[in-house]
From TrEMBL:
GO biological process assignments: chaperone-mediated protein complex assembly; mitochondrion organization; protein quality control for misfolded or incompletely synthesized proteins
Limits of the AAA+ ATPase domain: 114-263
Pfam family name, one: AAA
Protein's name according to its UniProt entry: AAA family ATPase
The organism of origin for this protein: Croceicoccus marinus
GO MF, one example: ATP-dependent peptidase activity
PANTHER family documented for this protein: LON PROTEASE (PTHR43718), LON PROTEASE HOMOLOG, MITOCHONDRIAL (PTHR43718:SF2)
Length: 332
């Protein structure tokens, strides 16, 4: 499997002016994650390879994303890190872990999103998934969110072997092809709730080989019948507790205990959730309504009582819906 194919000096990439931030304007570092997808014998006889046509992007050069979040702001801090400190200040421990690894990577000439697998452990509604999604947004990379609770086999991660009806490659491979990047961010929600059944493989066991750098570099995909390089995939897992996570798998993660956000975090959360809601609707910056101070105070009081980001998200969406309905209607 080939490594990064572009030169190591990417200083010009990180200094591209804001007006030239499109990926078409800069030479992104790229990698090839698979050398060749094996064709079916029957298809090969007539010169066809359906899997190559569908997933052949991984045999070419795929870009490594995240460079935009690794540019520095006016205060010299990585933009990704500054964004995380603003939108999830109670998760400073996780942000510090990510920052240290990104700074080291930049020092040796690797301007893309990359850090060791991260496991966020905390109470429901404490913002674990919120943190991961904010990271993807700030870095400018795509993410795939996978609910792991109740998984009774490994097919959601490892895919299915060729020969089965609807056979599909491993989830990281599908994410690479769909989003055109070699380092998608994969969020594994409630990883401790994976079923212990092993009839069709266990998701925890599949993760072991995907997270271990030595095996991830040549991970064998049974659908593609080829080795793929998963070393650049960015993994963030969440759990309500460590109970149910096997020690060998736990050892692959940097584990962070997530505190419940406090009253002082309310304003940052409300603004972050407001912006998320507007982005999902595709509202341009100039068309995004602000929340009245009286509404913000009410949301703040409710959050002080509940401490739940999930509940706050619903309340912010209701408030934003009312604010949008008060605007002049858009006529197409």
């Amino acid at each position: 499997m080939t490594g990064a194919s572009a030169p190591l000096d990417y200083s010009s990439l990180l200094n591209v002016p804001d007006r030239q931030r499109s990926v078409q304007d800069v030479a992104l570092p790229t990698v090839r994650v698979c050398d060749r997808i094996q064709p079916d014998a029957t298809q090969a006889a007539i010169g066809l390879n359906a899997l190559e046509e569908q997933y052949g992007a991984i045999t070419g050069e795929l870009p490594l994303g995240g460079w935009n979040g690794l540019r520095r702001n006016a205060h010299g801090r990585l933009r990704l890190i500054a964004s995380l400190r603003n939108t999830a200040p109670w998760l400073y421990a996780a942000t510090n872990i990510v920052e240290r690894q990104l700074e080291v990577a930049l020092h040796v000439g690797h301007p893309w999103l990359a850090f060791r697998p991260l496991l966020l452990v905390g109470a429901p509604g404490s913002g674990k998934s919120h943190f991961a999604m904010q990271m993807a947004e700030a870095a400018g990379v795509t993410f795939v969110q996978v609910p792991m609770g109740g998984d009774s086999d490994n097919r959601s991660l490892a895919g299915t072997a060729r020969g089965w009806t609807g056979a599909q490659p491993a989830l990281p491979v599908v994410a690479m092809v769909q989003h055109g990047t070699a380092n998608p961010l994969i969020i594994l929600d409630e990883i401790e709730k994976v079923s212990g059944e092993r009839r069709n493989g266990n998701a925890h066991e599949a993760l072991l080989s995907m997270l271990e750098p030595r095996t991830a570099g040549c991970w064998y995909d049974r659908c593609l019948m080829a080795a793929v390089d998963l070393r650049h995939v960015v993994w963030v897992a969440t759990a309500n507790s460590l109970h149910g996570i096997p020690p060998p798998l736990l050892s692959r993660f940097d584990v962070v205990n997530v505190p419940v956000p406090g009253p002082r975090d309310a304003d940052a959360l409300i603004e972050s959730l407001r912006r998320d809601f507007c982005q999902r609707l595709g509202l341009l910056a100039g068309l995004q309504p602000r929340l009245d101070d009286s509404v913000v105070r009410l949301l703040r009081r409710h959050f002080h009582r509940s401490g739940s980001i999930r509940l706050l998200r619903r309340e912010v969406e209701i408030a934003m819906g009312e604010a949008i309905r008060a605007l002049p209607r858009v006529v197409h």
